[in-house]
Amino acid sequence: MTSSVTLERHKYDVLIIGAGGAGLRAAVEAREAGLSVAIICKSLFGKAHTVMAEGGAAASMGNVNDNDSWMVHFRDTMRGGKFLNHYRMAELHAKEAPDRIWELEMWGALFDRTKEGKISQRNFGGHEYPRLAHVGDRTGLEIIRTMQQKIVQLQQKDGREFGDMEAKIKVFAECTITEILKENGKISGAYGYWRETGAEVLFEAPAVVIATGGVGKTFKITSNSWEGTGDGHALALKAGANLVDMEFLQFHPTGMVWPPSVRGILVTESVRGEGGILTNSEGERFMFKYIPDVFKDKYADNEAEADRWYEDQDNNRRPPELLPRDEVARAINSEVKAGRGTEHGGVFLDVSKRIPAEVIKKRLPSMWHQFYELAGVDITKEAMEVGPTCHYVMGGVEVDPDSAAAIGVPGLFAAGEVAGGMHGSNRLGGNSLTDLLVFGRRAGAGAAEYVKNNGANPVSDAAIKSAADRIEAPFSRAGGENSYSLHAELQEVTHNLVGIIRTRVELEKAIEMIADIRARSKNVAVSGGRKFNPGFHLAFDLDNMLLVAESTAKSALLREESRGGHTRDDFPGMNPKWRQLNQIASFDGDKVNIKSQALPAIRKELFDLFDIHELEKYMTPEEIAKGGSN
Amino acid sequence: MARKLNLRIWRGDSTDGGLKDVQVDVNEGEVVLDVIHRVQATQMGDLAVRWNCKAGKCGSCSMEINGKPRLACMTQVASFDENETITITPLRAFPIIKDLVADVSFNYKKAMEIPAYEPPKNLAPGEARMEQIDVERSQEFRKCIECFLCQNTCHVIRDHEENKKSFAGPRFFIRIAELDMHPLDILKNRKRTAQEEHGLGMCNITKCCTEVCPEHIRITDNAIIPMKERVVDIKYDPARMFAGLLKREKRN
Number of CB pairs < 8 Å for A and B? Predict the structure, then answer.
């Protein structure tokens, strides 16, 4: 136990947990509002999961097709999310995304260009026009590096002003937060440990922005790195915030399937955007069979038209390979289940027949590299084997759209993947990177505004002691459970029972098994010392993943319909009644409880952007008659 | 099918340490990071290793494998002889934290010393126009995943701790080159400060950095050599020298 005399303490105005796109954008905003900012990351600075984003950042700049506008983007986002999105978040996102991309350019980002020298934009699933600003297939890296360097620029400016570059904005790398602290019902700071030494550290701050990303490591096959353990989801729950719609997980349709060690690693959607086609083991281009009714007028039902679309987008419908991700993932799943999968349980994705080798290497350089080095496959000559992989969680902290403030916890903010609502039941590719920027900025501004109105809120010794005791606990047990084995067990449960296709019986079983693992996890023992000890680190990550898995399984059990990233074999198809409800998870200190809550009704002028016949596919006659709220 | 693999892993910290032999199962297609994880999960729960994406995109799992600076996630076990013992050690140019984890904070300090991008005045957001061919030169350097393998292998610091103070290293030479070639950046004299403040002159272009770069960035040919050539031009250009003399006289 760290005594309060020697405990390392820091005081900041705003504490940002997570140094991916959303966290860094929030940091820039809060610093530019004149506040002091601490950025905490579990990894080294610049390694956050944002670097993995490949395809691009969706923003209706209209550089390639000037029919595009925020209204079209808004419509696509709502459609992609099957109208379960918080309309206000989708609206803010669509309106502000172009400004956030242009702003990055002013900070030094170098996007690929059009012939006129503007930022180039590429096609992507679910987007009506070419909309994704990109840099080859390493767009996320460009965005995080630009932001990282923007932080350095701010630090250099502070250095000139205060004589210390880290006077007002400091990065605490390889540091894990185990608890968010509150006093008198408001945020007071956070407690954690340095991964390097295991020493404990206290951050006092009246505002905390959670920007911790996703939960992929809860699942066995995932595109997420070790960091995606749902830390922010769990921290927020424990601090009294709600999680909204945790049943919605995006299984990206194309992850690598072979060799086993790379199973789950992402194959960017740009491969399909650039013309890649999906075929089964019989050589059939199967996606034509899986176009749902709601999308029939937008997607080609024959190969000839689909092929023509690449040349003439105004007079042809899109190829069905570019349907939203949930549709493609389910289609692949069905093909494999029907015995038409590849040798290793995937389907084929092929760009080699349509695009010349040198163009593939130029437009998809990291994909070429990834397959060549890890699977021994040359994608300019052969097809890739791909299958679904757990990629993104649509659910997350319930927030106020405008300020990103977590509902119910004054001083707490959340942005990026950890926040819920923006993407509804299914996220469109490319919407994540701009989500980070739009709501990262709003969270930074929201936190700054809050601090200016509220001021410091000192942490009590009692809160420190209880956080410190929790960190010490796994070291004081002998011969308890192994955190690696429990993690593997949890991943089996979620993979088998809470995966792409779900049923009541399986979900009930999953809830029981997760509760059992959680009970045993209270007895995790750690071997070795505190110094850079991954077994110790995993013990805390595991606790977070268990809370996330419990929230997901319980929300999934309650939602008796199939929509986006939640498919119930026992309740196929969408039910307009369920569209009007969010599932809200809260934590009572012992278990996660779920309740249904009415989804905010879409504003009239946004309602009017849609064709009424389209809305009829999603809404009840009463809602249509009402025509949106005022 | 699984077979047994002999590994020799460096374990210890800044005070003490040495190579430990372990035997571990290995399956078809696995990379070195997979077997390290298996050792961690089954035999050494507290074995320290840094990693993130496991797809060669984040540059976290840099280490030395049979003495060569590599990313563990991109090194196939099958690339070694079946009976070969694979020796895994932490990056040598940086201080040890524990086991396979080195203290790479040197690089983050250097990153803060490179003058930031400076945008043109009077250019409104969205108005920038650049040719693809012009952005590509800088884009090559922006592919850098900051694995710091180039920094680790560069003998200017690998063998000479005393040089660290005055030498930024290849990773930051490409950062300077990237900004120097950036179509919009307006800060002047980037090459000169590379020479005078960041130790560009200490590089004697043995290209070791280029050889270990997992992103195949042509660090030496496309960044370091062009900057060195231009620095020479600037320093020894007779016209500039004469102009410099005049300026000095004026000041005096």
Answer: 179
Signed CA dihedral, B77, B82, B87, B91: sign only: negative
What's the average pLDDT block by block, 10 residues per block, for chain B (252 residues)? 91 96 93 95 92 92 97 94 96 96 97 96 95 97 97 95 96 97 95 94 95 96 94 73 67 54
Q: Which residues on chain A are in Cβ contact (under 8 Å) with B56?
A: 366, 369-370, 373-374
Q: Smallest Cα–Cα separation from A592: which of A487, A522, A518, A499?
A: A518
Is A532 touching B (CB cutoff 8 A)? yes
Q: Please return the burial class of A310, using the count of CB atoms within 10 Å of its CB with bins 0-12, 13-18 and 19+.
A: middle
Note the pLDDT tens digit of each residue in A444-481: 999 999 999 998 999 999 999 999 999 998 888 877 89
Distance CA A268, CA A214 (A): 18
Active site members of A: 252, 272
Contact B53 A260 (CB under 8 A): no
B116 touches chain A (CB under 8 A): yes
**Residue A470 CB partners (closer than 8 Å, separation 6+):** A178, A179
Give CA angle at A48 (A405, A424), nearest 5°.
45
Domain range for A486 is 476-579
Sign of the four-CA dihedral A498, A499, A505, A509: negative
> pLDDT grade, residue A2 (50/70/90)?
very low
The rounded mean pLDDT for chain A is 94
Is residue A470 situated within a structural domain?
Answer: no
Main-chain phi, psi angles of B8, to 5 degrees: -125, 110
Give residue-wise pLDDT tens across range A482-510.
999 999 999 999 999 999 999 999 999 99
CA dist A271 and A254 (Å) reads 10
Q: Which domains does chain B have, with CATH numbers?
A: 3-102 (3.10.20.30), 105-240 (1.10.1060.10)
For residue A471, is it within any domain?
no
Summarised one tens digit per residue, pLDDT across range A66-77 is 999 999 999 999
Task: Please tell me the number of Cα atoms within 13 Å of A618 on its side-chain side.
Answer: 23
A408 and A350, same structural domain? no
- Verify whether the Cβ–Cβ distance A145 to B184 is below 8 Å: no
Which residue shows structure tokens 């999310």? Answer: A81
